[in-house]
Amino acid sequence: MPDLRTLSTELLAAARTDPHGRSAQLVVNDGELRQTVLALVAGARLGEHSSPPAASLQALSGHVRVEVDDTVQQEVAAGELWQLTHERHSVVAIEDSVLLLTTVTNVATLPHG
Prior knowledge:
Blueprint: H1 4-17, E1 22-30, E2 33-40, E3 45-49, E4 54-68, E5 71-77, E6 81-83, E7 89-104
Antiparallel strand pairs: 1-2, 2-7, 3-7, 4-5, 4-6, 4-7
């Protein structure tokens, strides 16, 4: 497993040279579970997209805003964890930020008994 502090530094450096101001690396890929470290420079945006069945966003550093229909849904600052909305949303970096995105791509339905 990678050291998240080292990876955060590397990805933020890469984001600073990226024309879109972002960089990412998948760090866990286990069945339906995915964890990705994302770096965004201040002002960079992840365009509107849908969430998988389950997802959370943890700010490792910095501060981001999650928007639904260009309205602030939630702000997430360093050390905070937020369960992502199931609505289409975008993410905007308020300051240089590194995020840990955890997703579950398929949620099995348990039989009712």
